[in-house]
Amino acid sequence: MTANHTIAESNTQSISAQALTQFCDDYLSTSAFKDYAPNGLQVDGGRPIQRIVTGVTACEALIDAAIANNADAIMVHHGYFWKGEPAPLTGMKGRRVRKLMQHGISMIGYHLPLDAHPISGNNAKLADVLGMTITGALYPTESHPVGNIATCTPQTADDLIATITQALGRAPLHISAEYHADSSTQTNGRLIKRVGICTGGAQDMIEQAATMGCDAFISGEISERTTHSARELGIDYFACGHHATERGGIQALGEIVAQKFGLPVTFIDIENPA
């Protein structure tokens, strides 16, 4: 676990959880999305917010880090109350919420709106660190696309692997568009110029990326079927880690909040290999 940075160290101001949530709701256009969990304020700690911790997922380790940092609020990409999960606040879920309430910490989460934001979103920030320029939507009819198409300097798969590894601190799992059963390597010499991007668990969008003429598709996770899809569709696939591809959006949102309200915001990275 590492605290990457704190913005606006000197703090003389505070804001209510409701006011902070309203600002973020407006900035991220949350009303435009049908999501798998509620976006915005999920747990109200009941006190003014003077210090904020951000992180990818509202796990217990992040809550403990927020307590240690005397935070009044946690802002995350993966919050609580997902569709289909049991409603009772028992077990692991109960422990998490109980700690938040006992320490007066509000928890604010944004899922799809934080993937899709054209400036501060996960896709946008991933494209930035990979030196790519987003040019459109993976699904052209979406007004707030959660998947994007980007262009980059023509490069081989090996070049892109090196760029991803340096940017994210981990090597991606690469499935080559050109599969050779008798070869120990899956890299190839074809040039990648047009790339589909959707962070997190969007591996099944690979078919749409191929349909849209992408040379490669980048996401976080991989399924058994993804390997066959990449080979049969003729598109390189890079599984870069769900957590690793979704650090950028919440960090960017924290920076926006710090600049807007003059509050100290600390990003805490809870190590996660998945």
From TrEMBL:
SUPFAM superfamilies named among the record's database cross-references: NIF3 (NGG1p interacting factor 3)-like
Pfam families: DUF34_NIF3
Keyword Ion transport: no
InterPro entries the UniProt entry points to: DUF34/NIF3 (IPR002678), DUF34/NIF3_sf (IPR036069)
Key words, A-Z: Metal-binding
Matches recorded under PANTHER family: GTP CYCLOHYDROLASE 1 TYPE 2 HOMOLOG, NGG1 INTERACTING FACTOR 3
Similarity comment: Belongs to the GTP cyclohydrolase I type 2/NIF3 family.
Protein's recorded name: Nif3-like dinuclear metal center hexameric protein
